[in-house]
Write a structure and sequence with these properties.
The chain contains 14 helices and no strands. It has helices at about 10-20, 70-85, 90-105, 115-125, 125-145, 150-160, 165-180, 180-195, 200-205, 210-240, 260-280, 285-295, 300-305, 305-315.
Amino acid sequence: MKIESAFRPLAAALLAGLVSLLAAGTLSAQPRIDPLTGEPTAAATPGTHVDPATGLVPVPGAPTPVPDPTGALAAQNTVTSVQQQIATGQYEDALQNCLGFYNQLKGDQALTPLVDQWIELGRRYPKAREDLVKIRDAKVGEFAKGGYMVLFSEIKAINEGFNQDDATVALFKALLKRDRRLAGQCYPYVEDLLLQKGEYVLCRDCIGDPQTHFQSMRRGLAMRQQMDERQKQWQADLAKKNNQPLPPVSRAPFAPMDMGEMATINFVGQVRKLVEILVATGDQPTAEKIRDEALTVMDDGRLKSALEDAEHKLKK
């Protein structure tokens, strides 16, 4: 089920850190960019190991930092404004709003949260599409000269909106030949697309050692679960201090998931993709081993059926 457009930009920002940022093995990456803020998650000194599952520099005994959602919420405010302007036919105002957002971006802040609405505006107002194409082409030119992870994610998002995914795959393949380290940072953004295109050998090359890749997933799951527990404890302590009951958990459609639920979705999804890659590249024993190890971490029906589901998908 697709998330309704009103919720997609914020949901994408909240899920990106959980679903996407995995890179291991031969393509171990530099420090990650927090998708909620567009800022580096940690400042790593040369030689410092950055956990590819979390993008954080592990500090023994230190509390796990919680990403600041301010950047994502600011982007959502712009998205909401543009949506309202499109709905009322204020197309030029909506375009100026989009361009204003783009022109105010600094450093690694991303255009990505606004892309869906900009694409929609372009369907109704050709000038908006023309401006977004110019921006995309300029970003592609910049990426060819060096590039960085957030820039790749922006190009990928715009290409997706234009139904030009083949251009993203071609860009990634060229990057892999030019800069494998940067490709390791960009791979999580393009993994799902590569799987859709049947590029299993390429995926297998990018993930490196499957066992190392799986252990990164386990660390990411543990970290997110710890953050979820800390958040719930903080809410309970605050409610007790204010002598108020905890608010009921909302299960309405498109209601935000808590961090624990998101961590579960991320872990299950990543394991299933890893199993699919291994089965597709003829490594059935390792696929079975990782499936079994994952079940010791989490008893989930989607993990139990991962091997059979992969085999069924590949037969189609």
